[in-house]
Sequence to fold (234 residues):
Amino acid sequence: MFNKFFYNEMKTKIISALRTKYQRFGLSNEAVDRIASALEKTVTDESGIDAALAEASTMTLIAEELQKSADAERRNRSTLQKSFDDYKKAHPSDEPDPVVKTEPSGNEAILAMLKQMQDDNKALKARLDERDANARTDEMRAKVLAGLKASGREDSAVTNIIMRQFAVGKDDTADTLIEKYKGSYDADYKMIHGDGAVPPVGNFFPKSDKPDANEFAGAVERLRVKGVLPAKKQ
Fold:
């Protein structure tokens, strides 16, 4: 028959890990037990214990337990102070009361340190999220350029323009982005080359040994109208 002090194997390992990793916080046995009881609901394998102990949710559980301990300590100090004041009233003395320096308790100092750890973890997570987002954007940009090239859309002037505003949404995939930027490419190509029977793919300049001056001037003016190039100085 199991008694109330029985711990299953996983909970025992979590308790051991908590005491090792967070020994400096001075958590009581009861606090460690409560935290382990919460963690064992989500940790199903020993390999996941370390990761669970580093989670922000675990930091919150520890902070709550330390706050409970700090509150209890403050109540105890308040009770002792009241008892002392009552004694002084009942036994008046001409001697001045001793000067007592009020310092933060050990638990309050630990709470401050824990909060700093939480803030550091948030800052680290933000940096990692930004790094992952940048890596995803670079990966998607490469796939879109490859997709445009595979469909014959190879005009470097046009691709340079549309890539300036390249952005990846949360739900975007390589396929959806390729289709989106095919449309942007075709619209910008037409903007650069003008209306008429111009295919949506091709080179920026006519295929000749030397670009036509009128064609070049027209392309520049259309880019100015679109805002890609600065307006012509008066």
